[in-house]
Fold this sequence. Notes:
Layout: E1 2-3, E2 16-17, E3 26-32, E4 41-46, E5 51-55, E6 67-70, E7 75-81, E8 90-95, E9 100-104, E10 106-107, E11 110-111, E12 115-118, E13 123-129, E14 138-143, E15 148-152, E16 154-156, E17 159-160, E18 164-167, E19 172-178, E20 187-193, E21 200-207, E22 219-222, E23 227-233, E24 242-247, E25 252-256, E26 268-271, E27 276-282, E28 291-296, E29 301-307, E30 313-315, E31 320-321, E32 326-332, E33 341-346, E34 351-356, E35 364-365, E36 369-370, E37 382-388, E38 397-402, E39 407-411, E40 423-426, E41 434-437, E42 446-451, E43 465-471, E44 477-486, E45 493-497, E46 506-511, E47 516-520, E48 532-535, E49 540-544, E50 556-560, E51 564-568, E52 570-572, E53 575-576, E54 580-583, E55 588-594, E56 603-608, E57 613-617
Antiparallel strand pairs: 1-2, 3-4, 4-5, 5-6, 7-8, 8-9, 9-12, 10-11, 13-14, 14-15, 15-18, 16-17, 19-20, 20-21, 21-22, 22-26, 23-24, 24-25, 26-57, 27-28, 28-29, 29-30, 29-31, 32-33, 33-34, 34-35, 34-36, 37-38, 38-39, 39-40, 41-42, 42-43, 43-44, 45-46, 46-47, 47-48, 49-50, 50-51, 51-54, 52-53, ...
Amino acid sequence: xxxxxxxxxxxxxxxxxxxxxxxxxxxxxxxxxxxxxxxxxxxxxxxxxxxxxxxxxxxxxxxxxxxxxxxxxxxxxxxxxxxxxxxxxxxxxxxxxxxxxxxxxxxxxxxxxxxxxxxxxxxxxxxxxxxxxxxxxxxxxxxxxxxxxxxxxxxxxxxxxxxxxxxxxxxxxxxxxxxxxxxxxxxxxxxxxxxxxxxxxxxxxxxxxxxxxxxxxxxxxxxxxxxxxxxxxxxxxxxxxxxxxxxxxxxxxxxxxxxxxxxxxxxxxxxxxxxxxxxxxxxxxxxxxxxxxxxxxxxxxxxxxxxxxxxxxxxxxxxxxxxxxxxxxxxxxxxxxxxxxxxxxxxxxxxxxxxxxxxxxxxxxxxxxxxxxxxxxxxxxxxxxxxxxxxxxxxxxxxxxxxxxxxxxxxxxxxxxxxxxxxxxxxxxxxxxxxxxxxxxxxxxxxxxxxxxxxxxxxxxxxxxxxxxxxxxxxxxxxxxxxxxxxxxxxxxxxxxxxxxxxxxxxxxxxxxxxxxxxxxxxxxxxxxxxxxxxxxxxxxxxxxxxxxxxxxxxxxxxxxxxxxxxxxxxxxxxxxxxxxxxxxxxxxxxxxxxxxxxxxxxxxxxxxxxxxxxxxxxxx
Length: 621
């Protein structure tokens, strides 16, 4: 064990080593006055010996040789606190392999033999606090084997009531108690893992206490991609407890600032119940609130996440069947009935499924929409669908990026839920994204698409490009106007907007392989310059161009596979502030910037494949 003593000026002396018993394998540590002599002692949980060790402090600042006390099997955590109500420090170990707790009650300057307390399976950690206001310490235990918490109410004298379980759905690990909503009652914050033997889920569950020993329904917040540590403290001295996590993947500490109402300035999480492959937003239930429709990556259905207008989302019980594996989604009113409809591209199919919406959130299948002309030998594999009016008739048309056919195609909408046969524009290698914008400022939408190497074709030597096609205004495009400009490798996402502040449309692409975005600035006549790289952090997978600070200039907002978002505030003429980081879910498939809680301030919503949830970061001015 290594101890660094303080010099009192923020610096520390050279580390000193203290021996633990041979084979100890220490897993947990606590510091408290165990023998009542007024000096701090050290207690460790030693999994290798199935014991706890106590190192009594000396007046000279050192420690006596460790003394071992037999515990349960595989202790992984230890706490030292008054657990009996007699004012003396007791010791408790959390024993993962024997599924119990070992309570060592202090008697004078000694610890009595351990008393076993039952809990859930594979317990990982415990915390002590007065949950029911009776002046006695209660215990909360995280059980990784049963995906729940055990609550053991103290009865005094070292006795505890049988544990009561609080289900969480995922394995809880680190936990901390605090009054996070400032109602005078202890609440619990718990770090969740993806499974008992794998890494962090990057989510902390906050359960409000009821003051009678119970814990309410959890709220979920992002905690960092590979967060392993968790503690509560008022870091900004505003009177509200904050949460601090250690993120091993980022080699950083994250602070989740508490608002004092039980919520935190981090992304709020809402489980989708499925592994998502795509998503789209719209008011699908007709209640005036933003909803999110989520494609199930395992196939067969879409899940409607209904918004409540306050920034919260809930998965609806009945999935929307689609009859295949959905790849991409687009939403818009294609039959002019006032309700948003949804188009779905499906793996292994040459047509897109049309789902006609209603004001009740119900969908009925409409006529299939062709993505490639009749007779095409290719499968479209459309990773991108976009609705927009390209022929200026007031009706939505459908643009698809056909990665499997090395093309983009356009089907003109008739306004009654049907579409004309698609026109195809080829020689755009493996397009992942395509969008519409008037880049030459003639009043007609133009096509901007990404073009890259096909990862499934080793012989494909295509260089990554941004491709532009100028629109004529009648639904056709001038193929001779095709322009290709260089960008970074593997452009995963595309956003269009004026980030340079000159009134022209720029193209911004996100590149996880190069940890940046590339900006292809708009120029005279609808031209685009070669992309210039702007660093934004590790593995950016999605990009949007909102005006985050309402200064009239577009900013760059990226979401990252490592579980965070970055904002680079634009100052015009290609100048940007330093990166600002915010926690989100893992591997965002979609990010949108819109007002989901009705406060007239846009919010950030991401759909996260890695954590199978939606992240909501409420905007502030």
